[in-house]
Amino acid sequence: MKITFLGAVQEVTGSRFLVEDNGVRILVDCGMFQGLRDLTKHNWDPFPVDPQSIDALVLTHAHIDHTGYIPLLVKNGFKGPIYCSKPTAAMCAILLVDSGSLQEQEAKNANKHGDPQHPQVQPLYTKDDAKNSLKFFQGVDYDTVFKIKSLAITLIRSGHILGSSFVVVSDGKEKLTFSGDLGRPHQLIMRPPEHLKETDYLVLESTYGDRLHADTDPIQALGEVVNATMKKGGVLIIPSFTVMRTQTILYCLYQLKQKGIIPDLPVYLDSPEGIAVTELFCTFEGEHTLSPSLCKAVCSTAKYTPTVEESKALDLINHPAIIIAGSGMADGGRVIYHLQHYISDAKNTVAFVGYQAMGTKGRRLVDGEKEIKIFGQWFEVKAEIKTIHALSAHADYSEVLEWLGYFEHAPKKVFLTHGELESSESLKKKIEERFGWSVIIPKFSESFELD
């Protein structure tokens, strides 16, 4: 087998890995680059290999940095099957269509606020392109081997989000495993990742390779932010990722209300895709630890605001409330409009609950910038900016090392991906010191023969 790294190397997003064997070509993940302009511009580059030459696509999970390029790959000629877990297939039907809508909206906004002398901005792909790509999806069961010509593939639950999987590829001689995004062993509602005993080669995420998550109770931490904001009479804005983070926040708020730690103030879920995923959440009971009745109660914690009119009405609120809105890095979605209205009032709070990639509005706010540009207009940042680290669904370096400790045999090589260079280098050193394994940080388009 041969692997070529086409994304998510020395940075976090753009997951794309080409595996070749005896004339067979499969792509593991097909994500968009997110964050800095220098990264997102690569979404517009021609794909490094002819999409028509790819036999199949296998997905680790549904997040857009792992799946968001699929509609364009199909548009440019890919016609093979797209294999993933059944929950991932269900969520991609929501997330990819939403991504297409966002591409169209962003192009419309750019043309509205941009220089009329410049050429009109076109979307990377459209909602219809995304819908068309869905016909290629095939949901498969965990722990079941399926064949793509000479390659045998198995998906194993990885505990990151609904449907997230380790992808194990075998040519009958060597075994290559992709961690995707590795879940944490002790989460509020997700089941932990399965323990793997062996693989010949491991492609491992390193997002938090140089960091430990805060050893705090996330429910308590969120409660403190809620109460501090309520005391000021303000509105709490939570930019949230559609899948799992939103549902985890709802679980925390449910617990806080049940225990009387926060008042029974209104909570709004202002994200059409977030609403759709939340409604889907209770369908896949085996993915999380909630009973059917508790799952229903948690998902009923918020009032849903699916329409544009309902969303706009949230900016007229003059009483304490919580608004959960996409996107999680505040770089798109409805949360942008709420930031326009609430960011310049000191009584309000914006609480980030996940990783903020370089170049995103979320990263700039977390880093303390005092002005933020939204739709061509500058807004002074007076609202309090908070970060709740304990809600991350990514394993930190200690949890990664703990997971690796279950391997009974050393991999021949470990390839570190999905991390900024400093993070990957830190994890590389830790793995080498703890296990003595051979660890490589690949470069973009670098290939390795696996034998």
Question: What's a concise summary of this model?
Answer:
The chain is α/β, with parallel strands linked by helices and 451 residues long.
Question: Describe it for me?
Answer:
- The chain has 451 residues and is an alpha/beta fold.
- It has two domains: 2-211 and 393-449, Ribonuclease Z/Hydroxyacylglutathione hydrolase-like (Metallo-beta-lactamase, Chain A, 4-Layer Sandwich); 218-391, Rossmann fold, CATH 3.40.50.10890.
- Helix content is 31%, strand content 21%.
- The protein contains 14 helices and 22 strands.
- The strands form four sheets. The chain has a seven-stranded mixed sheet. The chain has a seven-stranded mixed sheet with strand order 7-8-9-10-11-20-21, with helices on one face.
- Helix 6 (218-231) crosses helix 7.
- It is globular, with a radius of gyration of 21 Å.
